[in-house]
Amino acid sequence: MGASDPEVAPWLRCGAGGMVGAGPGAGGAEPGAQPGAGMWGLQPPRPPQSSSRGVEAAAVAALGSGDGSAATEALFLALGAGVTALSHPLFYVKLLIQVGHEPLPPTVGTNVLGRKVFYLPNFFTYARYIVQVDGKRGLFRGLGPRLMSSALSTLSRGSVKKAFPLEELEHVSNRDDVKTSLRKVVKETSHEMVMQCVSRVLSHPLHVISMRCMVQFVGREVKYSVLSSIGKIFKEEGLLGFFVGLIPHLLGDVVFLWGCNLLAHFINAYLVDDSFSQALAVRSYTKFVMGIAVSMLTYPFLLVGDLMAVNNCGLLVGLPPYSPVFKSWIHCWRYLSMQGQLFRGSSLLFRRISAASSFSID
């Protein structure tokens, strides 16, 4: 759930400057411009930033600005850590569902059409179960490395932004400048992609450690801890062990950024008519809506990356008969596809399975 937490508010991956290529104000307001000035004459409203990614975006903005003081940097890092800690139970439950751990039986109910369906435990029921087993502190298993991963991600994005500042492009003020605006979108998206990829690579080892600390809940193991994980992973898997699952995460980030930004640009340029009285308002929300839609389509990359991070690592959840040992992330993807599980864990509130489906309880 940060650049290192892709699981929450994924439509905010487009960076601290707002959602690049979002139509109105996609590139941010020009220096000295009037409030609300942007690509189409209107700055888009910020989507709700209820997760660590929202705070991280603000932190990156501060870290990338010339007047960002050390106190400001520390403040945003502290805010990011607070939000990451508060959202951790949500992330923890989501991960356990992703790896297929279903310790509670489904309940029988009916849908809006009156058909009988099985409902799997939602987030709140699952969280109560964890509290019963591990106490309230159990909801924060694996939080330490995740906090470090989030902080490293924020700092690395800010450093890259300072080292490779985005060159200002000509201001685009109307629909006639479609080619110019597309060039602006491509340049901004490329810049954001570099920041995101560098951030992902640097923070991924801590992401792997955090995953493994959390999934030990399934088998009640104590193999991995914050201090011993580095030595264990290096001894058993070598340096590459810290980067398992990195490729699908990177691919998901790249596909999301380009898909979201380009779709929003073409919708704003070709489908929203300037003669429409609410054209500016529609364009201001296009990127937000596209972000939600594209994040759903790229979810399998997140799932496969997280599963590869814990596969064949000596824990019950990553070994047969609980899980096959995957040869590669492509093997994992194909297996989940055949099982119809590529979107497992994408919903935490309404989790249904067909009454005709077989279901095993751990």
UniProtKB/TrEMBL annotation:
<keyword id="KW-0677">Repeat</keyword>
<dbReference type="InterPro" id="IPR018108">
    <property type="entry name" value="MCP_transmembrane"/>
</dbReference>
<dbReference type="GO" id="GO:0043065">
    <property type="term" value="P:positive regulation of apoptotic process"/>
</dbReference>
<comment type="subunit">
    <text>Interacts with PSEN1.</text>
</comment>
<dbReference type="Pfam" id="PF00153">
    <property type="entry name" value="Mito_carr"/>
</dbReference>
<keyword id="KW-0496">Mitochondrion</keyword>
<keyword id="KW-0053">Apoptosis</keyword>
<keyword id="KW-0472">Membrane</keyword>
<keyword id="KW-1133">Transmembrane helix</keyword>
<keyword id="KW-0488">Methylation</keyword>
<dbReference type="InterPro" id="IPR023395">
    <property type="entry name" value="MCP_dom_sf"/>
</dbReference>
<keyword id="KW-0813">Transport</keyword>
<keyword id="KW-1000">Mitochondrion outer membrane</keyword>
<comment type="similarity">
    <text>Belongs to the mitochondrial carrier (TC 2.A.29) family.</text>
</comment>
<feature type="repeat" description="Solcar">
    <location>
        <begin position="183"/>
        <end position="270"/>
    </location>
</feature>
<feature type="region of interest" description="Disordered">
    <location>
        <begin position="23"/>
        <end position="53"/>
    </location>
</feature>
<comment type="function">
    <text>Protein insertase that mediates insertion of transmembrane proteins into the mitochondrial outer membrane. Catalyzes insertion of proteins with alpha-helical transmembrane regions, such as signal-anchored, tail-anchored and multi-pass membrane proteins. Does not mediate insertion of beta-barrel transmembrane proteins. May play a role in apoptosis.</text>
</comment>
<dbReference type="GO" id="GO:0006915">
    <property type="term" value="P:apoptotic process"/>
</dbReference>
<keyword id="KW-0812">Transmembrane</keyword>
<protein>
    <recommendedName>
        <fullName>Mitochondrial carrier homolog 1</fullName>
    </recommendedName>
</protein>
<feature type="transmembrane region" description="Helical">
    <location>
        <begin position="239"/>
        <end position="264"/>
    </location>
</feature>
<feature type="transmembrane region" description="Helical">
    <location>
        <begin position="284"/>
        <end position="304"/>
    </location>
</feature>
<dbReference type="GO" id="GO:0005741">
    <property type="term" value="C:mitochondrial outer membrane"/>
</dbReference>
